[in-house]
Amino acid sequence: MTPNAFVVPDQIRARFAQAMSDMYRDEVPLYGQLMELVAQINADTLAADPPLAAQLARNDERQRLDQERHGAIRVGTAQELSTLRRLFAVMDMLPVGYYDLSVAGVPVHSTAFRPVDAASLARNPFRVFTSLLRLELIEDVALRERAAQILAQRQIFSDAALALIERAEREGGLGEADASRFVAEALETFRWHSDATVPLPTYQALNDAHRLIADVVCFHGPHINHLTPRTLDIDAAQGEMQRRGMSAKAVIEGPPRRRCPILLRQTSFKALEEAVRFPAGGGVAEAGSHTARFGEIEQRGLALTPKGRALYDNLLAQAREAGDAGSTGGDYGSRLEAAFAGFPDDYETLRREGLGYFRYRLTEAGRADPENAGQLSPDAAIDAGLISADPIVYEDFLPVSAAGIFQSNLGGSEQRAYTAHANRDAFEQALGSRCRDEFAIYAAIERDSLADLEG
After folding, report:
1. pLDDT tens figures, 321-346
2. What is the dihedral sign for C-alpha 391, 314, 109, 72?
3. Domain that holds residue 103
């Protein structure tokens, strides 16, 4: 088969993201309500803020906004993680970043599979936050070994999905019929199953060790536990969730509300308690329940440079340490706003101080005088009105925020424990690949935009 006959990976990714969204809407009806809520908030925000609408249009963000999603899954073994890497590669979704969630008492470490170049992000930015269970953090040795035995017995990918992954790797892509089959077969890995694979007492023992451990170990596969649309005003979305009677988180994870959004802010409605059948022997099933799947909303802002991220992390730590052992309850919102008074809140200062990444383009005046625009420094060209600088959107995640969402939606209390157990080398060995440096990706997009000014 010639390369021209292959379906473009961006198209396969878009089809997969839509199929995932349709499946999750059927499985979790509240997700459909969340989508409607976000669409209305976004429409209202764009109507009230024409400069924002123009900025999104300039950066190819407007067309992707309505289809933008991220999902999250959790796997139990190195083989499962490595095969997921191969599956996502068919859709040009590569592992970006390493996240140690043990920093907040969650026994996983993670990466995000996503497109990495600007054109692919503009076509469809679907990303999947993927966590690997860290069995070594289970203190009970016998329980740890039992969990490993259970995970070793399952196969989370269909034979057809594995065959199609191998074909894509061997031939360099998939034709139309195979691409359609691939989407359907890959979707099965993420589907919810209401039948557990272990007896209720085993589930309860793992659940007592940590609710997330039970979620990973006791089921047929890594069911998608949430899908997240992007909103342009998460505070308005949070208020609307509460008005509609959704059980929204009390605290929005991430930075406080700002004129110039940075990084990522997230909120969610609490996870659903779902009926589960546990095998009890002799073909009999024992009734029980499990809490894992929820609905989440995110607001994305400016991608920060290492300097900006260091400032963010420092200010966040100040806000958390000022409270009760890092609790996000009580007056956390006030503490957070007070701490972040030290973070510049206008784009020009953020740009000039090297705190964020920006995409540069010729203005109308610059297009009329491109030679002069290309010869001046970016600062001088901006001052002369020859080029513009728009914020590059943050495409990645925040470990403390992700852990906060996980904790609150696994039925546990808000985060309180912050002992880190980062082990990037072990994660990348399980993955079978290095995780790409997110800062390098943003820097390349900024650098390419500057190079384009020079013709």
Report:
1. 776 544 455 577 788 899 999 899 99
2. negative
3. 3-301+395-433
